[in-house]
Design a protein that fits this description.
The chain is about 60% helix and about 0% strand. The chain is mainly alpha-helical and about 110 residues long.
């Protein structure tokens, strides 16, 4: 290659072997997906703690309150799962991997 910066893609003398991948094996998530996944992890951590408390509680009022809190966390997680799916579709549409979808708002 010359001393000037090339505007072309590099050319490799040898093609990748069977055990080498030509594409990145990493999975990339958008910032929107990362935010949603972080929120889902936080909900999971809260649910684990509530379940631990639920095993050790004897009073029926406390038991009912903890069950209600768990039900609320499940509802929140369900909403986040829907939002995560929409974020994934939005990313794939913007990358050109999926056709435009009337149900998914891009902006």
């Amino acid at each position: 290659m010359s001393e000037k910066a090339s505007t072309h893609l590099p050319i490799f003398d040898t093609p990748p072997g069977d055990d080498e991948s030509s594409c990145s094996p990493k999975v990339y998530v958008s910032n929107e997906e990362k935010t949603i996944l972080d929120a889902m992890r936080n909900l999971r951590d809260k649910a684990v703690e509530l379940r631990r408390l639920l095993k050790n509680v004897d009073a029926s009022d406390d038991h009912r309150r903890l069950e209600d809190e768990l039900a609320d966390l499940r509802a929140q997680r369900s909403d986040l799962a829907i939002r995560r799916e929409q974020a994934y579709k939005r990313k794939m549409i913007m990358l050109g991997h999926l056709p435009p979808d009337e149900e998914v708002r891009l902006f």
